[in-house]
Specification:
The protein is 31% helix and 19% strand. The protein is of the alpha/beta class. β3, α3 and β4 form a beta-alpha-beta unit. It is globular and about 50 Å long.
Length: 183
C-alpha cells in the first residue's frame, strides 16, 4: 500500500550532509512506490511557540501567521514523517525546534484536527564523532514519538561528517535508502 511520506530537512545549508541523507531516503521510498514531499524547514520562517493558547482561533493550527501554516497542512495530510537535522550544540537547530514546539497546537488548547503522521524516522548527523553528543537530539525525537503516539521506524545517527561530502564515504546514505525502501 502506497503511503504519503513527508521529509522535513532541518539544515539551513542546502545540499549538505543532512540533505544528502534525506535524498537517499527519498530515493528508497520512491522506488518502493510511495509519494514523497520534501520540505526544508531550515529555510522557512517559523517562529517558536509563544504559549498564547490561541491555537485554532483563526481557523488554522496556530494563530501566528508564518510558514507553519503551510507545514501544518502537510503534517495533517501525510502518513509517514522523516525528520532530518544536523547536530548543533548537542541538539537540533533552532529552525527544527521551532516547528516541534508549534506541534503544541495538536496536543494543547483546542487541538481540533489530528496529525496524519502515524510513523516516523529521525536522521541526525554532525562533525562530532562522539555518540554522547547526540543524546539530547535523540531524546527530543523519542519524546515526540511517545507523546504523539508515532511508531518510530528508524533512527540514523552519524558523526565525523563535518566536511562537505564526508557522508558519502560513511555508508549512511545506503542505510538511509534502505530505510526508505522498507516503508
Amino acid at each position: 500500500m502506497s503511503k504519503k511520506v513527508l521529509v522535513l530537512t532541518g539544515s539551513p545549508r542546502n545540499g549538505g550532509n543532512t540533505d544528502k541523507m534525506a535524498d537517499a531516503f527519498i530515493r528508497g521510498a520512491e522506488i518502493a512506490g510511495h509519494s514523497v514531499t520534501k520540505y526544508n524547514v531550515g529555510n522557512k520562517k517559523i517562529a517558536g511557540c509563544t504559549a498564547c493558547n490561541t491555537c485554532w482561533s483563526k481557523g488554522r493550527a496556530c494563530s501566528i501567521d508564518d510558514d507553519f501554516t503551510e507545514l501544518s497542512e502537510l503534517l495533517e495530510s501525510h502518513d509517514v514523517l522523516l525528520m532530518t537535522a544536523p547536530l548543533y550544540w548537542f541538539s537540533v537547530p533552532a529552525q527544527v525546534k521551532a516547528y516541534v514546539d508549534r506541534l503544541y497546537a495538536y496536543t494543547g488548547a483546542g487541538g481540533l484536527r489530528p496529525l496524519g503522521i502515524k510513523e516516523s524516522y529521525f536522521f541526525v548527523c554532525g562533525g562530532d564523532p562522539s555518540k554522547e553528543q547526540y543524546k539530547p537530539a535523540l531524546t527530543l525525537y523519542e519524546g515526540l514519538t511517545e507523546f504523539l503516539s508515532w511508531k518510530s521506524r528508524g533512527v540514523l545517527q552519524t558523526g565525523g561528517v563535518d566536511e562537505d561530502g564526508a557522508i558519502e564515504k560513511s555508508g549512511v546514505l545506503e542505510q538511509a535508502e534502505k530505510l526508505g525502501r522498507e516503508i
